[in-house]
């Protein structure tokens, strides 16, 4: 089995590659090619622990570059597609790159996968494609109603992937997950931003009234779900991957203050993000019943591990803080 993993030098992609090569998904004969442009959020240090593994190859390149993708695709049995522009705040100020990478890049990959007869294409999508939900939880059939350039571009790529299944019978599986957290997450996203600011004795910016609700998913649980969907999911299907723990941003902030020994004095209320979705909530019944997925890492344990990792790995995140501004 030879896998092409796009965006494998980012937060979630690198967790997947490390786990796969270190045998977390069982003994595997998988060879892995990582294709990553190494944008500001891509970092080869995330893959340092597998860099010498003979089953691993790294290629620096852009998924939008049809020549690069054309050369790389032959011989791969499956694609696991993580590469994307991912930060909603950046999309507010510069949507063009989001459309280019997330929509055009995905189409370039799908086209090459189709022409070269790739056996499975797993597209990593997001719960943000559904917009915002006041009550209840989304199921996989819910209509898409994205509200930011990030989520609109992700919805475009998600629907393109499903269209390639319907039109060309490409074996596509789409996963839509909730908010990930864990080690190696770029310190622009809320949990590592808050943790690193708090560890440094600084303040943390809390959007609006702080009552926006997110479902938190440990990155290792997300990658377990991806592996299940890749190996056991049905072609043409969408699977939700969630963590089952919903919190307001205020509640999350309280937990992070407690974990870093800081108090509410460190919280700086700031104007709400434009178009800030109020609540995300995924039903994970389908992947639970069909593929046996169950999140393993409680929020309590996951946050404690994450804070400890950022405390112990300053040399990883300190150079990145400048890049995130
Ligand atoms: N982090 C989350 O909470 C979350 C939630 C839902 C869905 N997702 C999805 O999961 C995937 C991975 O997210 P992440 O948090 O690891 O993001 P990340 O920003 O940490 O990593 C993205 C990676 O993609 C690479 N990349 C960007 N543009 C590229 C291009 N044109 N060509 C090749 N490589 C490129 C970057 O260099 C980086 O290594 C994304 O598709 C994202 O939409 C993430």
TrEMBL record:
Catalytic activity: dTDP-alpha-D-glucose = dTDP-4-dehydro-6-deoxy-alpha-D-glucose + H2O
Alphabetical list of PROSITE patterns matching this protein: ADH_SHORT (PS00061)
Broad EC category: lyase
GO molecular function: dTDP-glucose 4,6-dehydratase activity
Keyword NAD set for record: yes
GO biological process, one term: nucleotide-sugar metabolic process
Cofactor: NAD(+)
Top-level lineage group: Bacteria
Protein name: dTDP-glucose 4,6-dehydratase
Organism: Catellatospora chokoriensis
């Amino acid at each position: 089995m030879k896998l092409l993993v796009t965006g494998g030098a980012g937060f979630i992609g690198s967790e997947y590659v490390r786990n796969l090569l270190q045998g977390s998904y069982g003994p595997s004969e998988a060879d892995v090619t990582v294709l990553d442009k190494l944008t500001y959020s891509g970092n080869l240090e995330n893959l340092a622990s597998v860099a010498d593994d003979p089953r691993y190859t790294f290629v620096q390149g852009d998924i939008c570059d049809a020549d690069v993708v054309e050369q790389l695709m032959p011989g791969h049995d499956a694609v696991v597609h993580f590469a994307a522009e991912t930060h909603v705040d950046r999309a507010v100020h510069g949507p063009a790159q989001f459309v280019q990478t997330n929509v055009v890049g995905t189409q370039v990959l799908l086209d090459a996968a189709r022409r070269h007869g790739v056996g499975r294409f797993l597209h990593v999508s997001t719960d943000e494609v559904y917009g915002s939900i006041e009550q209840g939880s989304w199921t996989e059939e819910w209509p898409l109603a994205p509200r930011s350039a990030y989520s609109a571009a992700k919805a475009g790529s998600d629907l393109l992937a499903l269209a390639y299944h319907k039109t060309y019978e490409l074996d596509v599986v789409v996963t839509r997950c909730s908010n990930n957290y864990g080690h190696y997450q770029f310190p622009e996203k809320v949990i590592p931003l808050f943790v690193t600011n708090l560890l440094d004795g600084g303040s943390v910016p809390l959007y609006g009234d702080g009552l926006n609700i997110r479902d938190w998913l440990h990155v290792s649980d997300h990658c377990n779900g991806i592996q299940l969907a890749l190996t056991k999911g049905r072609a043409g299907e969408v699977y939700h991957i969630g963590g089952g723990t919903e919190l307001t941003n205020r509640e999350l902030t309280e937990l992070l203050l407690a974990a870093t020994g800081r108090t509410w004095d460190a919280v700086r209320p700031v104007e709400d993000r434009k178009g800030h979705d109020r609540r995300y909530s995924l039903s994970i019944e389908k992947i639970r019943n069909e593929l046996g997925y169950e999140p393993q890492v409680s929020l309590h344990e996951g946050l404690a591990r994450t804070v400890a990792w950022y405390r112990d790995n300053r040399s990883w995140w300190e150079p990145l803080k400048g890049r995130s501004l």
